[in-house]
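User: what does the whole thing look like in 3D?
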Amino acid sequence: MTKLTIEDLKRIKEEVRSSTLLREGGFRAKITIHMGTCGIAAGARKLMSAVLKEIEERKTQDVMVTTSGCAGLCSREPMATVEIQGKPPVKYCDLNEEKIKEIFLHHAIQGEIVEAYALARGSETTY
Amino acid sequence: MEDLSLHIIDIVENAIAAKARRIEVSVVEEPGEDRLTIEIKDDGFGMDEEVRQRAVDPFFTTRTSRRVGLGLSLLAQAAREAGGKLEIDSRPGDGTKVKVTFQYGHIDRKPMGSMAETMTMLFLGNPDVDFHYTHVKGERSYTLKSEWMREKFHDQASVAPDAIQWLKKHLQEGLAGIGVKG
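Assistant: Here's the predicted 3D structure for the full assembly of 309 residues, as structure tokens:
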């Protein structure tokens, strides 16, 4: 029998955590793409497709993706909000496919805010 | 908006904002009749007569955060530019039906764009909404319903990788089967 390495244990921990969250109907990270008229015209669908592609390719099980309306800052679209359970949501602005992929990897997966693209920390306002 | 599939997201987002639980999206391409019809029907709040009449006015919105509302007006403009029109049928409590027609071969008619991409994101981004999508081209038609996806992936999160894969494949193959570029 081969020895378990630290990496194996980390992987098992991640797998168990993902499946537990799913059983509870929860999620570890939530990505909201702003889909107001302004967001759509600025390219928000490309962001959504890029995020779905990342989930599909990385076989990510614990990230929820959803859409919302205009956040009131039309000139900074396309925008997205990333929320890790138990932490304040972070809004990102002036995005493109490359930036959202970076945000997906660093923030949604690894939990580190990509400050270069962040607009502000705080809660989502629904107008 | 670059194409009609993006306008469709916009109108569906209106329906979602009106708390719709069921949304029907129908695209009927009739090249022989020189007609393209898009219909989006929801069971949301609906609008009263005054709001309905002013809904396509770009300087009217029910929001309080700003004074412009461009979604429906942009689509109405796109229809007018291509020899068509936009009609809204709505009543408070009864939901809303938006019907847009275009001259199919009009030089200024916007391209359809990727309906596969539009429907993939609408289905996956709104797992609580019951979508019913029908696309007709000439004699052939394609249908996709949220309930089919739910039956197949009932015990998984809707953003599960295999659900994304299944949905993309269904849409791409289904649309290609009726001669629509996904």
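In plain terms: Helices of chain B lie at 4-17, 49-54, 71-81, 115-125, 146-152, 161-177. The interface with chain A takes residues 1, 6, 9-10, 13, 16-17, 63-66, 70-71, 74, 117-118, 120-121, 124-126, 156-157, 159-161, 164-165, 168 of chain B (CB under 8 Å).
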